[in-house]
Amino acid sequence: MNASETAVIALGGNALSPAGEHCTIAEQFAHTRESLGAIVDLALDGWDLCLVHGNGPQVGDELVRNELAREEVSPLPLGVLVAATAGWIGYMIQQSLENALRLAGSDRDVATVITQIRVAPNDPALSAPTKFIGHGIPEARVQALLDRGIAVKKDARGRFRRVVGSPAPVAVHEVGVIRRLVRSGTIVIAGGGGGAPIYYDGARGWEGVDAVVDKDLAAAVLARDLGASLLMILTDVDGVYLDYGKPQQRMLETLTLTDAARLDAAGAFGAGSMAPKVRAAADFVRHTGGRAIITELARGREAVRGAAGTTIIAENA
Fold it and tell me: What is the pLDDT of residues 134-170, one digit of tens each?
């Protein structure tokens, strides 16, 4: 590779806080350290790097904390909680990655940029919640949440979870700052939780939106605007499956843009789970001709070498 090539790596919030764990900060730090193998490999190979991370479980937990403490302190709105989780998850990744780089003999700097993502204020997704956040909710609590006006749906694994509005990312507000840092060799953690969504108000300037931008779609926009040649989406499954969770499930090693669009239109990927990842990867490949890979956190190193995950390509070779 050329030293100037850029890779954007999207790290799922579920990978740092898997289902079935208590998700203490110690556990999340441990998973963060486990997630860095592919990133360290790319850094040692001379890639310019930008990391984007999710926050679905974490921001859901923050909403629960807000609700439990609302009699004592004023609750924070969702958009502010996105920025808050971007800060502390970025801190975990920044500290853990710097330690891993030093152990590997690299002196590259790591920095976190709290990132704002421009969205359209009239995006219909704002009034049609589909983005899953938080952990699974016991069925006994579902009706109580619905009665309070909190949207809840079943995810691809049959778990009841909160859903919130998720507008499409239009642009990364801090892309110039991020580009300068990345080109200087700094490994940048940006777009945390998909970035805090904002829109422009003619009278007041930039204003926040209480929503969550999908981090994979935000990563694709950032990768496109940085001129990246690789977008890698690390999650909690080893690739893109057809009939996921069924006896006949089958992983796709490669997926063309044509097949991705056809299967997505047929609902093959799950609206709130794998579908946004496939759309993000396809959008990046369509606009740049680069390489996009979707795989699980533990197989990131293999995926860089083309030996794991699902690779999105323009067309069959």
Answer: 878 888 888 888 888 888 888 877 888 888 999 999 9
How is the chain classified by DSSP, letter by letter?
A: --TT-EEEEEE-HHHHS-TTS---HHHHHHHHHHTTHHHHHHHHTT-EEEEEE--HHHHHHHHHHHHHTTTTSPPPPHHHHHHHHHHHHHHHHHHHHHHHHHHTT----EEEE--EEE--TT-GGGGS--EEESS---HHHHHHHHHTT--EEE-TTS-EEEEE--PPP-EETTHHHHHHHHHTT-EEEESGGG-EEEEEETTTEEEE-SS---HHHHHHHHHHHHT-SEEEEEESSSSEEESTTSTT-EEESEEEHHHHHHHHHTT-SIIIIIHHHHHHHHHHHHHH--EEEEEEGGGHHHHHTTSSSEEEESS--
Topology of the domain comprising 6-119+170-255+268-313 = Carbamate kinase (3.40.1160)
Residues marked as catalytic:
13-14, 131, 215, 277
Domain residue spans of the chain = 6-119+170-255+268-313
Determine which of 11-25, 187-201, 281-295 has the lowest per-residue pLDDT on average.
11-25
**Residue-wise pLDDT tens digits, 256-301:** 999 999 999 998 887 657 888 999 999 999 999 999 999 987 787 7
